[in-house]
Amino acid sequence: MQRGFLVLLAAVLIGVVGAMLSRHLMKSSPAAWLCQKYGLSADKSCRIEALQTEYGSRCGPYCDKMCEANARLEQLSLEAGLGQRNITPTLREAVAETDRIRTETRIVMLEHFYAVAAELPPEKRKEYLLKVLPLVIDSCGSK
Amino acid sequence: MSDDHELSALLQNWTPKAEPGSGFNRSVWSRIETLESRKSSFEPLFSWIQGLATPRIAATCMAVALFGGILLGGLQARSSQEEQYLHSLRPFAASALAR
Fold first, then answer.
1. Contacts with A34 from chain B: Cβ below 8 Å
2. Residue A115's closest CA among A28, A27, A31, A29?
3. Rounded to two decimals, what is the model's pTM?
4. Could you read off the pLDDT tens digit of each residue along chain B, which spans 99 residues?
5. Do B81 and A62 touch (CB under 8 A)?
6. Interface test mutation site (partner B, options A14, A48, A136, max chain B beta carbons within 10 A)
7. Cα–Cα distance between A40 and A36 in angstroms, integer?
8. Domain extents for chain B?
């Protein structure tokens, strides 16, 4: 009975190791998954990878600006909340600044989605856009 | 003092006779039977584990576990790839990947 339990335990461990190894080996870049899912050729795959890299580079400055704007907004709103507890013009401007940066970022995202969709087969474009547009469009809590 | 000696002698010679109750033997045996029936009802549930000790069955079990683990890992990796792609589109994640 003891030997049987040891065999059972070893089998469970082997199964877990096999699963982890399989997951690690199947890991691929996000863009590579997209190319595989929509059956894109090697040329298109390279183009998609390049678009993804370019998109990441474009997002970088916006992320830095957003971090700074958020930090400023946090400080101003805390000061206003602990002080006179009203919305000063400076605070209003800080809120508007974060909205401006968010708007520009969403435009960059949409441009990237359209560029990627243009590389996909026409019949797959709607499916792709339906997956990615929720990242830009708020759901209003309906979903 | 002689009374004390007599009392001591009497106490030394006196042996208590504690008789068990009339149902004592019966209750002990019924407890033993209950314990043994509990053991025997669990044995069939785990008797198959003894079979795993056979080398051929153990090897088959390991092979099935390995294949099953690889299959499950692959399926799990595939199902999470879409989420990873969508996550990579978020500006912070995208810029982190590009850096």
1. 85
2. A31
3. 0.63
4. 567 888 888 888 887 777 666 688 888 888 888 877 766 556 666 777 777 778 888 899 999 999 999 999 888 887 788 888 888 898 887 777 766
5. no
6. A14
7. 6
8. 22-98
